[in-house]
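Appendix C reproduces, verbatim, an entry submitted by the partner laboratory led by Prof. M.T., so that reviewers can inspect both the input and the predicted structure.
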Amino acid sequence: MAEPAETMTLPVPVDTLLAAAVARRFYLEQLSKVEIAKEFGISRFKVARLLDAAMAHDIVRIDITVPAEIDVPLGRALTERFGLRHGIVVNLAHGEGNTESAGDRFLEDRWLGTAAARLITEIAEEGDVLGLDGSHAVDALSEAVTRLPLCDVVQLTGVHGRDLAHDAAIAAVRRTAAVGGGRAFPLHTPFLLPDAATAAVLRSQPATAETLNRFGLVTKAVVGIGAWDAPHSTVYDALSEPERETLREAGACAEVAGHVLDAEGRLIPTELNARTIAVGAAELRGVAELIAVTAGGCDTGAVRAVLRSGLFTGVVTDAVTARRLLRHDGPGGMTRTAASSRSTERGQR
């Protein structure tokens, strides 16, 4: 039974020490509220109140910074143009003509992930089920998010590296779940398998099936956008050249969670779907709030394709990409996207 509501104050040193100890476990050691409650013999509700008190009394200070301000008007223009609910544009400090290094792109991923953390903090509600893919921006989100309501977190794509126990995607899911004291549902399986039969066997494993069965329960999700080329695509290098050529002829332009889209945002059916362990297109379409985050160096055409797909309700991107999107999709240019119809439909529920 939950403890009665009470105002948490710190009148004596022992309470200050308790709040500091709880805050250290939570923010530095990344233990969940449930784990902390068990260690100290208190309820997780009291843990949450101690964490709030630690911030209120300056025991803990959290400072999330970005290299430049969020461009609110540009974000609003994106939402109007593409029929989205959320448009977060980070005004990064590089011009359109500048050449970005790999280090620049890495830092850009971190800043965009931080902005995505800010958005998910604002829209998440208690009881939500959050879905996260294995993109670099989502990894950055998991490191930047500092407060969430109680909600479970589900990994939407399998592991891209060889370490199935300690991959960054698994760590991101656990880290994010710990912030809100919810349960983490990781995928300790490869993202791409050599054939459909192997993928089917792995999907049937109890631990994997437990996570896969929660795909349909996801209410809010964040996924990265990849261009259909190396190294931005997660599956491009795994295909033979004839397979790549077939997809190029079909108009492949972008990739999201292993799904390939053409320039108009239409999903291109491929045999890859049978070989991947990832959220399905129908499950993505059923997510109430689906947020796309661009990657450093991501082609604008890929972002445009994703926003035309009708799958997404929000985007986090940089100012250069946003301006290019608006320039090429102006009133005299391409038509508005299918995303607007999805947004309108949801607004009437």
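Residues 1-14, 331-349 have pLDDT under 50 and may be disordered. Additional entries are available on request from the coordinating office.
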